Amino acid sequence: MSHSATTEPRRARKSTGGRRATPPRKRRRGRIILVSLLVLVLAAGGTAYWIYSGIDGNIKGVDIDKAIGDDRPEKLPTSGQNVLILGSDSRAGANAKLNTGNVSGARSDTALVMHIPEGRKKAVAVSIPRDTLVTRPKCTKANGSSVASAKRVMFNSIYSQVGPACVVKTVEQMSGVRMDHYVEVDFAGFKNLVDAIGGVTITVDQDIHDTSSGLDLTKGTHKLNGTQSLQFVRTRHGIGDGSDLGRIGLQQEFMLALLTEIQKQDLLGSPVKAYKIADQLTAALTTDSELASLTKLAEFGRSLNGVNPSTMETIMLPVAYDKVDPNRVVAAEPQASTLWKALRSDSTIPESAKKSPATGG
C-alpha cells in the first residue's frame, strides 16, 4: 500500500553526510519528557482542580469503546494500567500560517504505551517508531464509514487517515495489550501553553536557519515565545543532515526545558496563573470519553502521583529495517512479542526484549 501523501518521509538509517545520529538512549529520554509533563500538570490539577471548573468543556473526548466495539484484547486482572499517549501535530487552522510547509491535517508524531504495573510505582513507557510498518485492522471512522484492513501501513499515517480509535485498535491488535485509556496532546497546542508560562529558555550549540519552519536562531541561549517554540520542535532542515533524527533531539531539549519552566511555576500559590496554564493545557488535550472531564482527569492524575517520572523506564519497540524499504522499520521478532507478553502478564521485561536491531545509527 502506498504511503499517505500527508506523511513526511524520513530516513531511518544513518546519513552519509557525516553527522552522527542521536544515540538511541538519548532519543528515548525525550519520549519520557512528554509523559513527565503530562503527569506533572495532571497531578497539580488533582490537588487544585476545583479552581478549574470553568474550563471543563475544553477537554475533547473520543468514545473508544463505541468505535472499536468488542474486538479488543481481554483485560487481565494482573495487567495493571495501560495508557496510549499520542503527541499529535496539527497543521490546520491558525497553525497553517506558521510556515508549516505543505502538510495538511494532523499527524501522530509520538506514540507511547505507558504501562503502570499493578501495585508498583515504577512505570514503563514503550515508544512505537512512527515509521513502523504495521497491519491496520478493519476500523470505523468517526462518520460511521468502514475502512478495510491493510498490510504494510506506516504507523503514523493511521491517525490522519482513519482517526484515533483506529490507532488504539491497531496498537491493541499488534500487542495484545488492552488500552485502559487514551490521551492525545496536540503538539501545536503547546504554543499557547508556552505563552501562558512566559516563554521557554533553550540553548543551541549551532546557528539554526530553517526557511521551512521559519526558525532563525543564532548559537547561544534564547527565551522562546509560543510561535518560536512551535517552530523549534518542527524544524529539521536547518540542522544536521536534514533527517528526522535532528528534530527528535530538538524536541527532547524543548520538552525538558518546558518541564523545567512549569516546575518553576507556583501553580498552587497563584490561582490566576494556574487557571491560565490549565486552560491552555486542557485545550490541547483529547482523551477517551471516560477521562474527558476535569474531575476524571484529576482522579487520573492522583493515581499517578506515586509514579516518579525520573525512574520511569523507557523502551523503544524493538524494530528492524524493512527488507523492501530500508527507510521503514518493522517489529523485530522475537523481541517484540516477548516485550508485549511481559506487559500483558505484568511481569519483568527481559533485557533481550529491549534490544532493537534498527537504531537509526
Question: Which key terms come to mind for this protein?
Answer:
single chain; 361 residues; alpha+beta; seven-stranded mixed β-sheet; two-stranded antiparallel sheet; 10 helices; 17 strands
Report on the structure:
The chain has 361 residues and is α+β, with helices and mostly antiparallel strands. It has 10 helices and 17 strands. The strands form 6 sheets. The protein has a 7-stranded mixed beta sheet, sandwiched between helices. β6 and β7 form a beta hairpin. The radius of gyration is 20 Å and the shape is globular.
Query: From the alpha-carbon coordinates, what is the Rg to the nearest angstrom?
Result: 20 Å
Question: What value does the average pLDDT take?
Answer: 75
Lateral strand order in the biggest sheet: 1-14-9-2-3-4-15
Helix content: 25-40%
The SSE order reads HEHEEEEEEEHHEHEEEEHHHEHEEEH
Global geometry:
globular
Distance, first to last CA: 27 Å
Which percent band covers the strand fraction?
15-25%
Structural class: alpha+beta
What's the count of strands? 17
Mind describing the biggest β-sheet?
7 strands, mixed
User: Unreliable runs, pLDDT <50, ≥5 residues?
Assistant: 1-36, 43-50, 98-104, 241-246
The count of helical stretches stands at 10
